[in-house]
UniProtKB/TrEMBL annotation:
Keywords: Signal. Residues 1-18 form the signal peptide. PROSITE patterns: PROKAR_LIPOPROTEIN. This is DUF4830 domain-containing protein.
């Protein structure tokens, strides 16, 4: 009888964990994460995992810092119209990205969104120093 109860408890725990993982994968992703993931997949990148989903108010002060300059110098757009506005930033680990041909190790991309539209982003190799690349690895 004890074996039956232990088996039942183990099976119950296993089924419970599986359902939780499915809910997190399908239903708990923010709209920004879904948009950014779809955008990257359309470019042919294999999205491995979500690292973060955050936001940042773009300020003139930030744009004058080295990280701000490096980040916005590789964008296809000027940051001027986003000053004082909130940019959503979704970061993923990806594969099949142009930087995979240049660097070994993990490649991450940060997708910038404004009002649910992708406006740019950055990519970088985690194990290497230096400034960020454009979203496409240039």
């Amino acid at each position: 009888m004890k074996k039956f109860v232990l088996f039942f408890l183990f099976l119950f725990a296993l089924v419970g964990c599986s359902e939780t993982e499915q809910v997190l994968d399908k239903e708990q992703l923010s709209e920004n994460v879904k948009i950014a993931k779809s955008y990257l997949e359309e470019k042919g990148y294999d999205v491995i995992s979500l690292v973060s989903d955050s936001s940042q108010v773009i300020t003139q002060e930030y744009l004058e810092t080295i990280p701000g300059q490096q980040e916005w110098n590789v964008q296809p757009i000027a940051p001027d119209k986003y000053i004082g506005k909130t940019i959503d930033i979704v970061m993923f680990v990806v594969e099949d990205h142009p930087l995979n041909d240049k660097y070994h190790g993990e490649i991450r991309v940060r997708v910038f969104l404004y009002e649910k539209e992708v406006i740019g982003g950055t990519s970088f190799a985690v194990d290497y120093d230096g400034g960020p690349h454009s979203l496409e690895g240039e």
